[in-house]
Design goal:
The protein has 345 residues and is of the alpha+beta class. 25% of the residues lie in helices and 20% in strands.
């Protein structure tokens, strides 16, 4: 069996090596986890470290091949291939050119439903039940087959059929419970462009009735999501502010292409402006400030007890009164940060 690398991960080169790792883990009663883009908390991504470091964490960075059948408009991709670019890839194998979407775009192909965040791996995206911001186009319906190494180390390929009782339809939405996804085949469509807009506002000032049943003048959230080809809402349900970001778009039609937009093949892309402003030529300072600010507020007063090295029961009554007073005002710092990084427009 392959050995663990110095980075703490196992890097299988093919399905056979994935199967060997799983069989070994079964024989030793060890946990096996596969790290994708690690978007969740470490405890939900990595194996339990309490077992003397013997539990197994896999990185599928060696399984990232992309094979295109242009005649069928189909693509078969390794489970470790990123949808786009992952700047935090621990193996540093992800680039802006070798992700699935950039390769498809280069070949004038696309998946019907493309998510806004594309640093995830193909296997990770499917295994977390993720999809994009639309009720019209389905990411999962584009899946034609998956190859999975199950919990016994057996390699299985499940192909889409007309029989809805086929195990394929359970595996596609199994949230990783059926095994490690090593490759996926998708049915593609021709690449397309989208046009739309984004707006930041208080939730009672959205273009739709976020909390209610809607009216002729203002549709309900359900109608908003069903009537728009692509739509998503980010909502901060805080006690001191109900700020949200609404985004909606649709596929561009022939009449949408102008001298300002450019043609389909030479589109003049209008990208989103980064939320974080540059400081001394870098986004890092403002990102760090925002991350630190939101973290300190959300984890107050736990981090303060850790800082002074005392528990809640150990601090003096005067200190506890001060902590409780700060606790009352902490939520009011959220609007300050929201206005700084997510101003209404």
């Amino acid at each position: 069996m392959i050995k663990k690398s110095n980075d703490g991960y196992y890097h299988p080169k093919n399905e056979k090596e994935v199967a060997e790792i799983i069989k070994y883990a079964v024989s030793k009663k060890l946990q096996v986890r596969v790290r994708g883009a690690a978007q969740s908390a470490p405890g939900a991504v990595l194996a339990d470290p309490s077992n003397a470091g013997e539990n197994i964490n896999i990185l599928l960075d060696k399984l990232r091949t992309v094979t295109i059948d242009k005649s069928k408009m189909q693509v078969t991709v390794g489970g470790g291939c990123n949808l786009g670019f992952d700047p935090y890839d621990p193996a540093e194998s992800s680039t802006k050119k070798n992700g699935l979407f950039p390769i498809l775009q280069k070949n004038n192909l696309s998946i019907p439903n493309v998510p806004d965040a594309i640093h995830q791996t193909v296997a990770g995206f499917i295994s977390t039940g993720s999809s994009g911001a639309t009720m019209d186009h389905s990411f999962h319906e584009a899946i034609l087959s998956l190859t999975i190494v199950d919990g016994t180390g057996k390699i299985n390929t499940f192909k889409k059929s007309q029989n809805t009782d086929d195990p394929f339809y359970g595996v596609v939405v199994s949230m990783g419970l059926c095994g490690v996804i090593t490759s996926v085949t998708f049915q593609c469509i021709e690449s397309f462009d989208i046009i739309g807009y984004e707006r930041t506002s208080d939730m009672d000032d959205t273009d739709y009735d976020f909390f209610g049943k809607g009216s002729k003048e203002k549709p309900s959230l359900q109608k908003h999501l069903t009537d728009n080809q692509f739509a998503r809402t980010l909502w901060w349900p805080l006690s001191t502010t109900h700020r949200g970001i609404s985004w909606q778009a649709r596929k561009m039609k022939s009449k949408d292409y102008t001298s300002k937009t450019g043609s389909h093949k030479k589109l003049k892309v209008k990208r989103y402006h980064p939320v974080f402003p540059k400081v001394l030529g870098s986004y890092i300072p403002s990102e760090s400030f925002a991350s630190t600010g939101f973290t300190l507020i959300s984890n107050w007063p736990t981090w303060f007890y850790d800082l002074i090295g005392k528990s809640k029961k150990e601090v003096s009554p005067a200190m506890q009164a001060m902590i409780e007073k700060v606790d009352q005002f902490a939520p009011y710092f959220y609007p300050i940060l929201m206005n700084l990084y997510f101003p209404k427009n």
